[in-house]
Amino acid sequence: MKESGPLNGAIQISGAKNTCLKLMGAALLTDEPLTLTNVPRLSDIRTLSVLLESLGVEVARLQEGRVMVLSGRHITSRRAEYEIVRKLRASFNVLGPLLAREGEAIVSLPGGCAIGARKVDLHLMALEKLGATITLEEGYVHASAPGGLRGAVIEFPFVSVGATENALTAATLAKGTTVIKNAAQEPDTVDLALCLTQMGARISGAGTSEITVEGVDRLHGATHEVIPDRIELGTFMIAPAICGGDVELIGGRRDLLQAFCEKLEATGIEITETPSSLKVRRPNGRVKAVDVTTAPFPGFPTDLQAQFMALMCTAEGTSVLEETIFENRFMHAPELIRMGADIDVHGGTAKVTGTKQLAGAQVMATDLRASVSLILAGLAAKGDTVVNRVYHLDRGYERIEEKLSAVGANIQRVSGHE
Ligand code: UD1
What we know:
- With about 425 residues, this protein is of the alpha/beta class.
- The protein has helices spanning about 15-25, 45-55, 80-85, 95-100, 120-130, 160-170, 185-200, 230-245, 260-265, 305-310, 330-340, 370-380, 390-395, 400-405, and strands at about 5-10, 35, 60, 65-70, 80, 105-110, 135, 140-145, 155, 175-180, 200-205, 210-215, 220-225, 245-250, 270-275, 275-280, 290-295, 320, 340-345, 350-355, 360-365, 385-390.
- The protein folds into 2 domains: about 5-15 and about 230-405, UDP-n-acetylglucosamine1-carboxyvinyl-transferase, Chain; about 15-215, Enolpyruvate transferase domain (UDP-n-acetylglucosamine1-carboxyvinyl-transferase, Chain, Alpha-beta prism).
- Helix 1 runs parallel beside helix 7 (about 185-200), helix 5 packs parallel to helix 6 (about 160-170) and helix 6 runs parallel beside helix 7 (about 185-200).
- Uridine-diphosphate-N-acetylglucosamine binds near residues 120 and 123.
């Protein structure tokens, strides 16, 4: 296959997967329909739809899947089965809303990407604070609060996006006031709070480290637009950085990725914000090596560490990438090494020395963001790269081969259509 030269053109950024998954769970809180627009067409979204349907939520997709209407009029089951929850960690977030609405929820312990232990103790601690009784039986969490949840002060020892969001959704229907301290500040959490507010919840402080929720008796339906996917945005910003060129990311916003943008600029990339997009251009030859440490928002996202590593494999100089969120998130490193990269991993730190030219190879995708880092490296490499197990990609990137081909990348799906 011909090598990818500089990339030029525009890519439309889809709605945010991680946000959309949490918004869908909010439909469990009300007997009226919740309409979501700008929904991404991804297998993770379909997996959660199946789970919600198993609980009695009616899920309709309109306008080629871009609009989703979720109607939780009749909850028919309070049990989220292992068979579905294991495929998608975010599905553990049905626990909070189901418990808040029904007074009981039985949810399998989750699975998801194999990037670390990924415990749920903080989720359970938060719900216990809200008055739930929790037991663990045969791999399932049984949570009950027959008299309803009660507002409480919940202080997280460290930031957890999932636990903050489970606590936030549950607290909307609790009696009294809940204060969540050391809360996640991710744009996903802010968007969830906005949607819940449109449904009648009383929330203040979302986007700061302390969120206050005044419980209400009931929530109602709403229509809400999913924010752009900042991880898809960051991934496609790296494409022209690694291949050269000038690409416009339609729907891109700098405030979603400030820390990432600063690091990318430090490598020598130019970023220009317009009212409706971000434009990314590589003005010179190779990028410069830049160190990165992942952190909760507003820090550098863990979900962009693998893609940034691919870029650093081609940079001039040596960079140190430190992963602080997940303990096993360098699984892409051995695969990048197969492509000629010089990477030394010690615990949560990777030392990457850039090489002038990566070489195409057969590589294996191990998780969602790792797989896309191999695609980025493959675009910059001499010769063909074959990425196996691309189903990981379809969990989080909508028609990635079409979006990248549209700006001049040479990429084809050989097999593995959904
Ligand atoms: C995390 C990322 C989020 C990313 C998502 C998908 C952070 C802070 N979170 O969210 O940006 O989009 O993965 O890849 O960057 N933990 C516990 N006990 C718990 C919950 C979490 O020990 O009950 C630990 C996790 O193992 C992890 C850290 O806390 O080390 C942060 O996890 P958390 O934010 O909850 O993970 P996700 O919600 O999956």
